[in-house]
Design a protein that fits this description.
- This protein is mostly beta strands.
- The protein has one domain: Lipocalin (Beta Barrel), CATH 2.40.128.
- It contains one helix and 13 strands, in the order E-E-E-E-E-E-E-E-H-E-E-E-E-E.
- The radius of gyration is 18 Å and the shape is elongated.
- The termini are close together.
């Protein structure tokens, strides 16, 4: 959408995007995870292939979000680890190529939102709640309006059958069971 205006509106004292379908820009969107390794250090990874949309309703609480991730596009900085993550021990991408989030409701929380929805990994669907923020509208150098969103949640990976681990001699496990999910998204209002 080429425009010099900022397609936002104010509802109950909060700035929200204009009504319509906002298509996620996959080249400027990150879906990442953070896990603890050896119980202390953080290992980060992300996905290169992301698709989705945010449908903003007249009443923001009726809005919906859908994100689809190509599980084989994982990158954690180490080829061997990436191969392990895509194997049957974790995502089993040969059988389950996609990770999907579909919202079920949106709820105001202070100046931000709670985004409730279903996360599907390996054909297991479980509800999660993301802390969700609308960060505003920015125009790129070509005059295209981009809505910017941020979301995060902590999940227990074993809830999705991601149970592979190795016990440590001194106690604990090699890979944390709790994983932090982080999404930073840019989206453009569809035509």
């Amino acid at each position: 959408m080429e425009t010099g205006i900022k397609p936002t509106r104010t509802i109950d004292g909060r700035e929200v995007p204009a009504v319509g379908t906002w298509t996620i820009d996959p080249t400027h969107t990150q879906a990442e995870f953070v896990a603890r390794h050896l119980m202390v250090s953080k290992v980060r990874g992300g996905f290169a292939t992301i698709d989705g949309s945010i449908v903003v309703a007249e009443d923001p609480s009726d809005s919906t979000v859908e994100i689809v991730i190509d599980a084989s596009s994982v990158s954690s900085g180490t080829a061997d680890r990436d191969a392990h993550i895509t194997s049957e021990d974790f995502f089993d991408v040969a059988t389950y190529p996609q990770i999907r989030f579909v919202s079920t409701s949106v709820e105001a929380k202070g100046s931000d939102w709670l985004l409730h929805g279903d996360l599907t990994i390996k054909d297991v669907t479980k509800p999660i709640t993301l802390d969700f923020s609308f960060l505003g509208i920015i125009s790129d150098p070509w005059g295209n309006a981009k809505a910017v969103f941020s979301a995060s949640a902590q999940v227990e990976r074993e809830d999705w059958g991601l149970t592979w681990n190795v016990p440590l001699e001194g106690g604990g496990v090699l890979v944390s069971k709790t994983i932090k999910l982080e999404i930073e998204a840019q989206a453009a209002l569809a035509g």
